[in-house]
Amino acid sequence: MSVKHALLGLLSEQPKYGHQLRQEFEVKTGDVWPLNVGQVYTTLQRLERDGLVESDEADSEGPQKWFRITAAGEQELARWLMTPTDLTVPPRNELVIKVLVALDIPGVDERKLLQIHRRYLVELMQQWTRLKDDEGQYDFRLALVVDAELFRLDSVIRWLDAVDGRLKREAPALRAASAELPILRRRLAVRK
Amino acid sequence: MSLLELHQVSKTYGAGPSEVHAVADIDLEVDRGSLIAIMGPSGSGKSTLLTISGSLEEPTSGEVLIDGDSLQKMSRNDKARLRRRTIGYVFQEFNLLAGLTALENVSLPLELDGVSAKKARLAGIAVLEDLGLADRATRYPDQLSGGERQRVAIARAVIGGRHLLLADEPSGALDQANGEAVMRMLLSACKKGVAAVVVTHDAQLASWADRVVFLRDGRIVDQTVPPPSAESLVQNVPQP
To answer: Chain A residue closest to B225 (CA)?
Structure first.
């Protein structure tokens, strides 16, 4: 999450005060990501140092100081917006690791394990969906944030379903293979 | 008393070696005002559970109660009346009659039940208005979008105060936005006292429900517990 670029985005509309930036950041991200004042000012200082924003006067500090985006800042913002976010490296996914580990442990009920995670994810999705449910407080930006989270959780559930399907089809072969494993281990242990 | 109750319901097809247990030992209660989602993979018995709940199919054993009345003790006529007056169905394919307008489709169940054409029409207008579809009343199904067709089908399912709504993959053929509109409609029907059971394999759809029941190989294996408030989510979001 780039606070730096989000602030540049807010400043590209018009010059703004520091405290105003924090408030607008929270509103525009659907109020889901809280940001503290210190973080805003540290980021602004760095942006100023790099020549991406300038302030009205170097001496004044705090909420009364206002900031303006520079031409270099505009360029950097445009570059960031149009650059695909790097997704080449898969994130370290603890759930995937848990399932892979479970496959090798004798006596683990994989279906039960998958269901525990599935239920947890569906319960989380129910909570997110409730945020959308309140039509009286419908907020377009919040709906976008909630959708992103729902799609992310949904993709994990689909993966669990896929694992379930594979286990159902391929479990006998898998069981046979893991039954051999202790023998192999024993042989290796003997050789040592 | 729950509106819909299933006690130890099982359904078996075939016999001997070819015997298939479509559903087994199902216990389920659905109250008025609540939306229940049944989730499970293909072939897990979801649709069978729904058709048995709606009296379209007989269980091999167990008991189904609607409004406290046992389906097993009802005559065919009683069940037909129950289906006309109490139960509304929504299917993935909408099943609207092509030669009738939205309003005529919606009013049809009442007319079939012997209500005068005029009264049925007024009730149809009322339910279409209620569900935000008044301006679609005179359109034919092929003049409606997929999402609108499904919403008309929901209006038809709840007309005349029918209060048990059974939906089989109601947004299966729709995109995300229309699927959401359908779920909002089901939810608003529930807030007016309808009990709804939605069968789906889609977690996004299921997440609109008050309770999600997981079905596997014909058995209920798990269900969600009522979640804490949504606010707790926002507080847990890490700072950027």
So the answer is: A123
